Amino acid sequence: MNATTPQAAIAVNRFGLGAKGDELAQANANPKAWLKQQLQPIKLSNSLYTSDYILTELAKYGEARRQAKKSKNAEAEFDKTNKERGKFLQNSYRGLSTDTFVAGLNSNNSVSWRLLDFFSNHFSVSASGPQMTAIASTLEREAIAPNLLGNFEDMLLAVTKHPAMIVYLNNERSFGPNSRIGKKGRGLNENLAREILELHTLGVDGGYQQQDVIELAKGITGWSIANPRKEDTVGFMYRSWGKEPGDRVLLGKAYKQEGMAQGEAMLKDLANHPKTANYVCSKLVKHFISDKPSPDLVNILVATWQKSGGNIKAVMNAMIDSDLAWQAQKQKFKTPREFVMSSLRAVGKKNIKPKELFFTLNTFGQQPMQAGSPAGYSDEQQDWDGANALMSKIDWVSLLARKSKANAEKVMQQTLNLKPSEHTYKSVVRAESRTQALALLLLSPEFLRR
Length: 450
Hints:
Helix content: 55-70%
Distance between the termini: 21 Å
Strand order of the largest sheet: 1-2
Shape: globular
Number of helices: 23
Structural class: mainly alpha
Radius of gyration: 24 Å
Largest sheet: 2 strands, antiparallel
């Protein structure tokens, strides 16, 4: 009989990305303390492309394409430059996304990595169009990861100022009607302000009105990105000549600050609003624990949020401490990304090539940075457990099992807390082959849920 406790299995699978190696044994002595120790800062390679570098290179490609059109061999030169740019876009997108995935795959602090996945989806951007294809994957690395265990307001500010979010929701095209450029016919764009209120802070039922959307949009006019071809800088840029002058009123509160400080003050208040605490804490419980969040557990997290000033690490510790998060029944069905990640960790695979990863996740319908909506991907069972999804899992698991040398019984001992009397345990140990045993384990109800 397995010597590990049910709580150890819950710790590594529900809160983390799935057990690898001897993590189940590590968590066994004190699962809650083990989880808290896992809340460590995330370190990603800084040797890969940054958003600043990408934007600079895209500007160079843009200029090269313009020059190519003027050359004697215009068509050939343009095609060559276009091909080089396309390769750069894909290398940026796939390289960064795969690097993040592989780092999580090998991490010894997978609770933090699950939290990164949560907030990356909370602040979802999609790799649509050339510029977004190249920079979408930098948002989680540059704005979310550095603020992962700090205060939510710092993360919100960093995300809102990041080029990927600004470009994705068109804020570089938003100008105050009474600003210098606004008087020349350039108008207000409400996209970013609307999603901040609806998806990033208060939530769709947060009590804001259309006028609040307009006021916030005016408050963050001028928040833009530099043009490396014309300006001696790159990345976020505040353009004072596009800022709507005057006071703003958001949710009944007046903001008299001038310049960029006005938008920052509005965002800080939104980050610390009671509705934001309830909305984000509800999403955290839904993501980690159950599709139907326990109101009592949400209230515990909200109280910690308000007491700590929105400190994410404190909120996570409160979740880990609560017995309401440790229900024996597995209530979360793994999303495709979670399933692939936990399967690879279970069999001890430490690397995956970009082409393989993207083909797999695309087959399952959850390709990185491709939700196609600021709302991100769903993590509810009803959106991932259809018949087609099951067939895709069977095909993928069968291939993984054939290629893997992992012993199914050993994997079962290292990842799940199954007893010899349970159906899945019997199916695995009685399987006709090693390959069949591993496939049965990875497709079992116990492994598909966390």
